[in-house]
Known about the structure:
alpha+beta
Amino acid sequence: MASAKILIGLLDRPGDERDALAEAIAKGDFAVVAAASAEQLPDSIALIVAHAHAVPSHEWPGLAQRCPTLVVSDTRLDRDLLKAVEAGLVDYIVEPLRHGDVLRRMIARVIEIHRLAQEHERDRERLAVLNADLEIHLETLRLDQQAGGHIQRKLLPPNPLTVGGVTCDFSLSPSLYLSGDFLDFQRFDERYCVFYFADVSGHGASSAFVTVLLKYLCNSWLGRWDGASPEALPARWLSELNRELLETKIGKHTTLFVGVIDLQRHYLHYSLGAQMPMPMLVSRKGFEVLPGEGMPVGLFPDARYPALGCALPQKFRLWLCSDGVLECLPGNGLDARLKELERLVRVCDGAAALRGRLVSGDEAREEGNATPAHAKTPEDQLPDDLTIMTLSGFDDANV
């Protein structure tokens, strides 16, 4: 049966003193194997106790590399003690036969420290491997996200796009690679064009997947529409999307504005689900917020959505913004920021201009506002997806 004791190697010249030192060490949990040279010690030793007069100074570095080593000496003036410590030996003790108990305690402490050091090294190596694996996974995820973002951008309409005298212009800036914001604008026939503007809760991959679902469903529903009852189409889309999102059980909801523009009547049929900020219409008559309210899409099974409409002036610009805009506006509270947004849409001539003002922080500096939400929002540090869409017509000359 193998001994459970810890084997200590003792390097010393043969003789009574070595035997006495071996006996002093070999108590409790320790067993001792004595030898006159390091080569005679077995590999199974946990620690070496080496007498300073038994080991040439040039052999100390080799001992230190092999395993933890304590050096003992009969006198504190032994010059080899200093050489041994300089070579990396962990500690020394003078007159070990007089301090046997201290020597055993030192041996136990050094073995424990060595065990912890080995454990730390194994943990460090394991963490290095895990970190390397994590870097690979992150790079794969980054490439997947970039590919997803490229696909998502391909699903957007051309920018700008003019249909029947109405021009769609937009700026979509995700805070990550993928966006939870999405929009579309397309012609249905010679009389109608259809658009929507969505802001899915959260951002990143899961929100982006909802925008792809939205694109697919709206194209499918548009393909089945016969052009009748345009006033009912936006509310019906919201109701059907609400049901679809609840059935997927992915825990995502969205704010959504859906509109149908009658190019003959110059009329907008629309419905909305918790759109914030509300759509803003700028014309030569002034500024107005489109009225209406509706519940978020994908939260409540029995949600009903309004069928609303308004006449469109001959020259107009309709602004739609995701709530990420609010993060970039100065002012204390929602009302102050919406007021600032109103000021900006009155003076900006398109989505790019408004976005430029928001990310540069010019509006805060111009107004001397001391409490901006973000005095300056760098391009790569947007706090949220930032999307702006304008529809202008019918003979817009900067409204």
